[in-house]
Amino acid sequence: MTELVIAVLAGAVCGFLNTLASSGSAVTLPMLMFMGLSPVAANATNRIPVVLGALIAVITFIRAGVIELDKAIRVLIPTCLGTLLGAYIASHIAAGQLKLIIAIAVLIALILLFAGLKKAIMQDLDQVPRYRWQEFAMLLFVGIWLGFIVIDGATYLLLVLVLGLRLTFVQANAYKNLALAVTSAMAVALFAMDGHIDWTIGLLMGLGSIVGAYLGAKLAMHHLAKIWAFRLLVTIIILELINMTLNYFHLAIVHT
């Protein structure tokens, strides 16, 4: 019962963080493995709260008139194509390689945050939105990562939408959640066919994610969200790096 309660709470945190900023999976994925799920099962089950939380956020943004159909299609086509490839890779990669890729991706995400995302989030740039082949390619690569592991995928997506497509923070947050909802649903379908999902834990986390996502979507349209989104992004990613470093030294001590 304690683990089930933790699953609901972790799902709520995941939905809130993914909606307002990103990296909600940094809470849920380690928690699932701590509860005894294999890395593959945890990676698959973790998609359920991501889907449900992002879906609630998308509904909130649609009601607010933020999402436009033409922009939605342009964002979804490359990310969905990439997701198919990423999910395939996730089911065929070795555990050791997976850990190394996660560590590298988290470090790059932190560097990129300080390199350019802070300025973009702190102020809405007065620029015309654009969609070139470069943005298509970047969304395609982000889609691959979303299908592969999800962790920090929303960070990369937010970077592309703000700095590449030149959307405002609220618009970028809306299309980010739309892409998360669709691509994660695709990944759930693919992983479910292989029997990797723990539906009981996943659905409980999904219930918590719905509440967290609703609160996050409401806060995302507040002017202070720009400041706190960046702070949340940086805090979560630094915690991820600390956690991976401690685990590395712990394994090194055990083996010696």
From TrEMBL:
Keyword Phosphoprotein: no
Signal peptide: none
Record field: transmembrane: 50-66, 73-94, 100-117, 138-162, 174-192, 199-217, 229-249
Subcellular location(s) per record: Cell membrane; Membrane
Keywords, ordered alphabetically: Cell membrane, Membrane, Transmembrane, Transmembrane helix
Pfam families: TauE
Superkingdom to which the source organism belongs: Bacteria
Entry membrane topology: Multi-pass membrane protein
Protein family according to the UniProt entry: Belongs to the 4-toluene sulfonate uptake permease (TSUP) (TC 2.A.102) family.
Name of this protein: Probable membrane transporter protein
Species of provenance: Orrella daihaiensis
